[in-house]
Specification:
The chain has helices at residues 20-23, 28-36, 39-42, 54-62, 83-92, 130-144, and strands spanning 2-8, 44-50, 70-74, 96-100, 122-125. It is α/β, with parallel strands linked by helices and 145 residues long. It binds ligand CA2.
Protein backbone atom coordinates (compact mmCIF):
# COMPACT_ATOMS: atom_id res chain seq x y z
CA UNK A 1 0.00 0.00 0.00
CA UNK A 2 1.33 3.45 -0.92
CA UNK A 3 1.77 6.11 1.73
CA UNK A 4 1.14 9.75 0.80
CA UNK A 5 1.56 12.96 2.78
CA UNK A 6 -0.91 15.75 2.01
CA UNK A 7 0.66 19.11 2.86
CA UNK A 8 -1.13 22.44 3.06
CA UNK A 9 0.77 25.67 3.50
CA UNK A 10 0.07 29.09 4.95
CA UNK A 11 -3.47 30.38 5.43
CA UNK A 12 -5.10 27.21 4.12
CA UNK A 13 -6.31 26.53 7.68
CA UNK A 14 -8.68 29.47 6.95
CA UNK A 15 -10.46 27.64 4.14
CA UNK A 16 -14.22 27.87 4.39
CA UNK A 17 -14.01 30.79 6.78
CA UNK A 18 -12.94 33.66 4.48
CA UNK A 19 -12.78 34.41 0.73
CA UNK A 20 -15.32 31.77 -0.44
CA UNK A 21 -15.50 33.46 -3.85
CA UNK A 22 -11.89 32.44 -4.52
CA UNK A 23 -11.41 29.29 -2.46
CA UNK A 24 -14.94 27.89 -2.01
CA UNK A 25 -16.76 27.16 1.20
CA UNK A 26 -15.26 23.79 2.19
CA UNK A 27 -13.03 23.69 5.25
CA UNK A 28 -9.64 21.99 5.26
CA UNK A 29 -11.11 19.32 7.56
CA UNK A 30 -13.82 18.61 4.96
CA UNK A 31 -11.24 18.34 2.18
CA UNK A 32 -9.14 15.95 4.28
CA UNK A 33 -12.20 13.84 5.16
CA UNK A 34 -13.09 13.59 1.46
CA UNK A 35 -9.58 12.38 0.65
CA UNK A 36 -9.71 9.90 3.54
CA UNK A 37 -12.94 8.49 2.11
CA UNK A 38 -11.00 7.53 -1.03
CA UNK A 39 -8.29 5.53 0.74
CA UNK A 40 -10.10 2.17 0.44
CA UNK A 41 -10.76 2.56 -3.26
CA UNK A 42 -7.24 3.82 -3.97
CA UNK A 43 -5.42 1.47 -1.57
CA UNK A 44 -3.43 4.33 -0.05
CA UNK A 45 -2.55 5.44 3.46
CA UNK A 46 -2.84 9.21 3.88
CA UNK A 47 -1.28 11.54 6.40
CA UNK A 48 -2.14 15.23 6.65
CA UNK A 49 -0.05 18.23 7.60
CA UNK A 50 -0.80 21.95 7.58
CA UNK A 51 1.45 24.76 8.74
CA UNK A 52 1.77 28.49 8.35
CA UNK A 53 5.53 28.21 8.87
CA UNK A 54 8.08 27.56 6.16
CA UNK A 55 10.51 25.68 8.43
CA UNK A 56 7.77 23.37 9.72
CA UNK A 57 6.79 22.52 6.14
CA UNK A 58 10.44 21.81 5.32
CA UNK A 59 10.69 19.52 8.38
CA UNK A 60 7.54 17.67 7.25
CA UNK A 61 9.00 17.24 3.75
CA UNK A 62 12.28 15.93 5.21
CA UNK A 63 10.30 13.39 7.25
CA UNK A 64 8.91 11.88 4.03
CA UNK A 65 12.41 10.66 3.09
CA UNK A 66 12.34 6.83 3.07
CA UNK A 67 8.93 7.04 4.74
CA UNK A 68 6.38 8.12 2.11
CA UNK A 69 5.88 7.23 -1.53
CA UNK A 70 4.52 10.59 -2.56
CA UNK A 71 3.39 14.07 -1.56
CA UNK A 72 0.34 16.13 -2.52
CA UNK A 73 1.17 19.73 -1.70
CA UNK A 74 -0.63 23.03 -1.79
CA UNK A 75 2.27 25.24 -0.73
CA UNK A 76 0.11 28.39 -0.65
CA UNK A 77 2.03 31.58 -1.31
CA UNK A 78 5.34 29.74 -0.70
CA UNK A 79 4.76 28.29 -4.17
CA UNK A 80 5.84 31.54 -5.70
CA UNK A 81 9.12 32.19 -3.91
CA UNK A 82 10.27 29.48 -1.49
CA UNK A 83 13.57 28.16 -2.77
CA UNK A 84 13.95 26.52 0.65
CA UNK A 85 10.86 24.35 0.08
CA UNK A 86 12.07 23.65 -3.44
CA UNK A 87 15.43 22.50 -2.06
CA UNK A 88 13.68 20.27 0.49
CA UNK A 89 11.57 18.61 -2.21
CA UNK A 90 14.65 18.16 -4.37
CA UNK A 91 16.62 16.72 -1.43
CA UNK A 92 14.12 14.00 -0.50
CA UNK A 93 13.27 13.19 -4.15
CA UNK A 94 9.79 12.06 -3.14
CA UNK A 95 7.43 12.46 -6.13
CA UNK A 96 4.89 15.22 -5.58
CA UNK A 97 1.91 16.87 -7.22
CA UNK A 98 1.39 20.60 -6.68
CA UNK A 99 -2.22 21.65 -6.29
CA UNK A 100 -3.86 25.07 -6.23
CA UNK A 101 -7.54 25.60 -5.58
CA UNK A 102 -7.70 28.81 -7.58
CA UNK A 103 -6.45 29.35 -11.12
CA UNK A 104 -3.17 31.03 -10.24
CA UNK A 105 -2.63 31.98 -13.89
CA UNK A 106 -5.80 34.08 -13.92
CA UNK A 107 -4.70 36.06 -10.86
CA UNK A 108 -1.93 38.53 -10.00
CA UNK A 109 1.33 38.20 -11.97
CA UNK A 110 3.30 37.09 -8.90
CA UNK A 111 1.10 33.97 -8.71
CA UNK A 112 1.95 32.93 -12.28
CA UNK A 113 5.35 31.65 -11.20
CA UNK A 114 5.93 28.44 -9.27
CA UNK A 115 9.47 27.77 -8.12
CA UNK A 116 8.40 24.19 -7.35
CA UNK A 117 6.46 23.05 -10.43
CA UNK A 118 9.51 22.09 -12.49
CA UNK A 119 10.28 19.39 -9.92
CA UNK A 120 6.69 18.16 -9.70
CA UNK A 121 5.06 15.17 -11.35
CA UNK A 122 2.39 17.69 -12.32
CA UNK A 123 0.48 20.76 -11.26
CA UNK A 124 -3.27 21.26 -10.87
CA UNK A 125 -4.74 24.74 -10.67
CA UNK A 126 -8.19 26.26 -10.85
CA UNK A 127 -10.41 23.21 -10.34
CA UNK A 128 -11.38 24.14 -6.82
CA UNK A 129 -10.97 21.76 -3.92
CA UNK A 130 -11.74 18.86 -6.30
CA UNK A 131 -8.15 19.41 -7.39
CA UNK A 132 -6.96 17.60 -4.25
CA UNK A 133 -8.68 14.39 -5.37
CA UNK A 134 -7.30 14.80 -8.87
CA UNK A 135 -3.83 15.42 -7.47
CA UNK A 136 -3.99 12.25 -5.36
CA UNK A 137 -5.29 10.13 -8.22
CA UNK A 138 -2.69 11.56 -10.61
CA UNK A 139 0.14 11.01 -8.13
CA UNK A 140 -0.86 7.39 -7.52
CA UNK A 141 -1.19 6.73 -11.25
CA UNK A 142 2.30 8.13 -11.83
CA UNK A 143 3.71 5.99 -8.98
CA UNK A 144 2.32 2.90 -10.70
CA UNK A 145 4.08 3.57 -13.99
O1 LIG B 1 -5.14 28.62 -5.06
C1 LIG B 1 -4.44 28.13 -4.16
O2 LIG B 1 -4.66 27.03 -3.67
C2 LIG B 1 -3.27 28.94 -3.57
O3 LIG B 1 -2.20 28.04 -3.32
C3 LIG B 1 -3.78 29.55 -2.29
C4 LIG B 1 -2.79 30.49 -1.63
C5 LIG B 1 -2.25 31.51 -2.63
O4 LIG B 1 -1.24 32.30 -2.02
C6 LIG B 1 -1.70 30.85 -3.88
O5 LIG B 1 -1.29 31.86 -4.78
C7 LIG B 1 -2.76 30.00 -4.55
C8 LIG B 1 -3.42 31.27 -0.49
C9 LIG B 1 -4.21 30.46 0.46
C10 LIG B 1 -5.06 31.39 1.27
O6 LIG B 1 -6.12 30.63 1.76
C11 LIG B 1 -7.14 31.32 2.32
C12 LIG B 1 -8.28 30.59 2.52
C13 LIG B 1 -9.37 31.23 3.08
C14 LIG B 1 -9.29 32.56 3.45
C15 LIG B 1 -8.14 33.27 3.26
C16 LIG B 1 -7.04 32.64 2.69
Amino acid sequence: MKKVLVVNGPNLNMLGRREPAIYGSDSLATIEARLKALTGELDVKLEFFQSNHEGAIIDAIHATFSNHDGIVINPGAFTHYSYAIRDALAAVRVPFVEIHISNVHAREAFRHTSVLAALAVGQISGLGVYGYELALRGLLRSLES
